[in-house]
Write the structure tokens for this entry.
Amino acid sequence: MGETARQMTHDRTEKDSVQEASTVSKGIQIFSMPVLWFGFFAAITIISLYTGNLPGGMIGSLLLMIVFGELLGWIGDHTPIVKTFLGGGAIVAIFGAAFMVYAGLLPDASITTMTQFMKDGGFLNFYIAALITGSILGMNKRILMKVGLRYFVPIIGAVVGAMVIAGFLGSLAGFSLRDAVLVITMPIMGGGMGAGAVPMSQIYSEMMGNDPSYYISILVPALALGNVFAIILASILNMLGNKIPSLTGNGQLVRGFSYKEEKQTYDIQKMGIGLLAAITFFAIGGLLGDFIPLHPYALMIIVVAIAKIADIIPKNVIDGASQWYKFVANNWTLALLFGIGIAYTDLNTVLEALTLPYILTVFGVVLGAILGAGILGKLVGFYPIEAAITAGLCMANMGGTGDVAVLSASRRMELMPFAQISSRLGGALILLLAGLIIPLFS
């Protein structure tokens, strides 16, 4: 599974001497093609962009996102320190895109088009639907049955750890316990903007007064900065796993249970079936969300997992979903990360939050989430690093967008189903806790 993850994130791990020799013989490649050919595609894209001739809608958006995402990803993966400590191509693709918006390097029309493609066009949902469906259906059934309710143990550990360490560091930095827990910790652990900060601002407004927009302006910097630390620490956890192999399952969550992935012959027709399966399961999540008070992602995960455990899905559908998921992850991850930087990342918000006490406290939240999830995860039979990434960092990031970035930085994209459990079901838990904790600080 670890090898599969490395392949899906464009072989961003350090190459051994044999691979390096092969790369030299082939010359520099970007997006698995010679750099001159990639440069040709990039030149056409840039000329079209700045002459106002870029196609609209999905075509122009995907063209920009693939070209700039792959270019920034290649730069991040080949820049010392950045590739080792800061998440490599994943973080450069996101914040490179955000900087291009911040600095006015992209025409407004292209920003609007990509934002609409990501949000109204549903490209993020399309991507995550493929990953959830393919990774669960392609997973060994016994792993799903082994995880069960135990997964909520490291989630609770992440929340408790985040509160304790953020409260301690926050007090050293001059924050009150109320601010450290409510204003900083809760939004970071709350499942992103839509599932966390927005409804949380409503809860705060109803229970503490002031307009919801007031709380949004306070919560968002914590959320944005926490997402940055989550991405960075995801990369560091990957490095730690490489140094201490006993701490990691290399993409497998359950300790003491390993299996070799079945080799498949890739089939274009099966990929089409996998595409249909992914978007159908996504639609089922939306339908159930109309009368079940859970996020459609969470419902989708439950339905796909039940279908897998019940063994009711034909093998060609399972194979197709797995192959389609690998195609999407292998070819569109950096494009998606660039789109996340354009549509979801406000560099102004991040920069405004960069005071030393604030940074220290936010770091405490993310560190506490890692330690709490990793320690309790180990107690219930999970690998500490995988538990820390999924139940810890994927609670502390910006929901679905952060899940993609964190798993990409940690080279463990196959953990997406567990990441989504953390972001969606864990986010609902945080909203409940917020309603219970606020009266204690009144």
